[in-house]
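Agenda item 2: heme C complex prediction
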Amino acid sequence: MTLRLKIFLLLLPINLLITPAAIGQAVAYSGVTDSMVLFQENCAVCHGENLEGTPQGTPLRGELQYGESMAEITASIRNGYDVTGMPTWRDIFSSSQIRNIAMYVLETRANVNYATSNFDMPLVIPEDSIETELHSFSIEPVINNLNPLPFSIAPLPDGRLLITEKTQGVSIISNDGTQSALIQGTPQAFDDIYRLDTRLDIERGMGWMFDILLHPNYAENGWIYLYFSDRCNDCNAISREREIPVSMNKLVRGRIEDGQWIDEQTIWQAERKHYSPAGDVGAGGRATFDNFGHVYFTVGMKGSNHRGIQDLATPWGKVHRVNDDGSIPENNPFIGREGVYGSIYTYGHRSPQGLEFDIENGQLWGTEHGPRGGDEVNRLLPGSNYGWPLYSLGMDYDGTPVEYGKDLGIAFELPDIEQPVVDLTPSPAVSSFIITKSSQFPEWNGDFLVGSLKARSLFRFVIENNALVHRETLIEGFARIRDIEEGFNGELYLLLEHNTGGQIVRLAPDN
Ligand code: HEC
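Presented output:
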């Protein structure tokens, strides 16, 4: 039985005793549970427990006659359709409750369920070829006994793959699908994972490995960039006071020779006072190069409780840019300002999980997680504010709108916040992406291939003139996709997480 159903059955006897109008006030659950109860109590009688429809109400799956966006579904619920038997709910529920119920409808339609991150859903590799609009392909296993928490792969020119596993370190996958021993001498990876009672579905830890990537001139200089969470004890005020470790993202480069990490140089690190006692789940951890000698990297909110994300004196909630040797580019947007990180390129980010430079068009792009709704694909413009925690197209898990500027005393104008090019509501838990130029999938050239965690799907977005013009789900409900990379011969690799072991698969075009 699903957790959702269990909660529902548990609540059923109480619900039968109270009127629909009282439920909103009476039930003190999170927004997610709240909206589920509101729907099951008030709507399921006509639309079915699973949105499948009944003789009194149309199915809320598939195509909807009055529109399928958040705004359109909210309007349907608010106003009703008098003549055809859909009641009006605007006098019964607050507008916040109506938005909550609409979000529940959207989530259920998309099979997005907040009770689980789908870390242990069966991972079955489809045997048959997958037909999509422009290409059909099969999914071929490369390796299937990785650590459950891999983070990044980087194809090497000879066809091998560098890999980071968050709690392990760096290793190399050879062409025949075997994994090397851990590369010795890299920064330490810590494997003490814990889970919170309130969010058992999410694994947490500190001192994790993040992205690994090759310098654009790797063939000549051999530089490999490694992005990780630098963990220390007794190294700042908070760690001394509370006698706990703290950590913050750090970028280094080095070379690999005979299974050893050598020549390490620090490219970027935060001030020690900004090392945080929060785990690395919200730390971002992606990095990318442009073709002008810069490296960009994401630092997520890292448990900052919304504080400091809008403040240029802190490193978190930002995308940073430095030169490949770690020096600060002279044309960085905030360089020269007193007391700020000169490396900051954009700010107002929540949990930035993907970062890519579009060499063709000279543009930087990023993905990030919203809370409940509001996952984003953003075009990252120097000096711009992406809005967290002032504003989001999603809502918080308790069902309230995102408006932490009120608590933090930060005033803003909506036009000052850069809006996403793609809004992903409900949240699939968007992850890493590429802007493909794969010779093996030529019809997808220039398209965004975007992975997701919770929704376990691979999406294709066609973006023209900074607007989404087409969206396709290439693989649906398959596996938590942590990374996607393109090999030197156009191979498309997916890095998958699963509680029984991570995997790498390759998309192999038919014929
Ligand atoms: C008494 C039965 C009944 C109840 C209760 C009811 N609905 Fe409806 N609903 C309908 C019918 C019938 C329609 C189709 C209206 C039409 O075709 O014009 C509809 C239409 C809708 C639509 C628009 C569907 C489309 O195709 O665009 C949405 C969204 C919706 N309902 C959501 C809800 C929600 C959410 C609730 C609970 C808060 C709810 N309904 C409660 C009967 C009901």
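Discussion summary: The mean pLDDT is 92.
Owner for follow-up: CH.
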